[in-house]
Specification:
NAD(P)_OxRdtase_dom_sf, about 325 residues, globular, 12 strands, TIM Barrel, oxidoreductase, alpha/beta, about 15% strand
């Protein structure tokens, strides 16, 4: 497993991280059983992954609870737990609402610690910006929790540079968590700026909802409530054909190395200078093993350039 040294946090983190949004059976079709999920997470840890990312609104707390059970009996000091706050499921409307006030942050962390069966969280993220709460108030809460030792590092997810700069007036920001993949590069400039500030980047969506695994050669026939259809533009009828053109290049490179297309995509992401670690969803024990095997090889500079040129020609990196 390749590792990255996080500058502001001053810790070494695996370049592959366990993402657990896919354990949300409310939004993802075909989510794993709890038993399978626990085994998959432990398999990742055994394979050298030392970061597990979750959130309370993934499955209405169920994802955090599964992670909590998965880490029991493991050496907690060698595992980084990342979770979030500020985004809440609205069980009446089926939507979400945001609340990052001081008191809410306190309540949410207490709940997350119970779910995770631990007495501290390593990386604690504002999940989405709360337009109604000043970031000064949110940072005050995070600094207080950090002083207490209940969280170790402060993160902002899905944020822009203006919010980061404002947050940094009130305390150290250690990491951001933006979307980033071959097909979603809208935050490249922000990631580069963050690296210069010592702020590391955990990217999510590395496999674009699974389309960059090579598994889908047609738009999937998922139920309308599967979040991937709305969250990932890759499945839109106007974008999907271009993704299939990209797959021809990825197929060619995968065949040359005798590896899976998903490994090409993960290597492309983790070999980008501004990516510190890539969150990849826990979807099956077999996929976990395949993803870990990614780090037995690397893309050459020529192959990286070939993929980038294809993305530019298809204008996928500009969507």
């Amino acid at each position: 497993m390749r590792m990255t040294h996080f500058k502001n946090a001053d810790v070494d983190v695996s370049q592959l991280a366990a993402g657990t949004w896919g354990l949300d059976s409310l939004r993802w079709n075909g989510a794993m059983s709890e038993t399978e999920a626990i085994e998959a997470i432990r398999t990742m840890v055994q394979g050298g992954v030392n970061l597990i990312d979750t959130a309370p609104n993934y499955g209405n707390h169920s994802s955090e609870q599964i992670v909590g059970r998965a880490i029991q009996g493991l050496d907690r000091s060698k595992i980084f737990i990342s979770t979030k706050f500020g985004t809440h499921n609205d069980l009446f409307t089926g939507g979400v609402f945001r609340d990052a006030r001081f008191g809410t942050v306190m309540e949410e962390l207490a709940s997350s610690l119970r779910n995770l069966q631990t007495d501290y969280v390593d990386f604690y993220f504002l999940h989405w910006p709360d337009a109604h709460t000043p970031i000064a108030e949110t940072m005050c809460a995070l600094n207080f929790l950090k002083q207490q030792g209940r969280i170790r590092f402060i993160g902002l997810s899905n944020c822009d540079q203006a919010l980061l700069e404002e947050a940094m007036k009130y305390g150290q920001v250690d990491v951001i968590q933006p979307p980033f993949s071959m097909i979603d590069q809208r935050v490249k400039a922000l990631m580069s700026w963050c690296r210069k500030q010592g702020i590391d980047t955990m990217t999510y969506g590395s496999l674009s909802g699974g389309v960059l695994t090579g598994r889908f050669r047609e738009v999937p026939d998922w139920p309308d409530n599967d979040v991937r259809l709305s969250f990932y533009k890759e499945f839109r009828p106007d974008v999907f054909p271009r993704v299939m053109e990209l797959m021809k290049t990825l197929d060619e490179i995968a065949a040359a190395h005798n590896v899976l297309v998903s490994q090409v995509a993960i290597n492309w992401t983790t070999q980008k200078t501004d990516v510190s670690t890539a969150l990849v969803g826990v979807r099956s024990i077999r996929h976990v093993a395949e993803n870990i095997e990614t780090f037995a090889w690397e893309l050459s500079d020529i192959e990286m350039q070939k993929i980038d040129a294809k993305l530019e020609a298809l204008q996928l990196d500009q969507l």
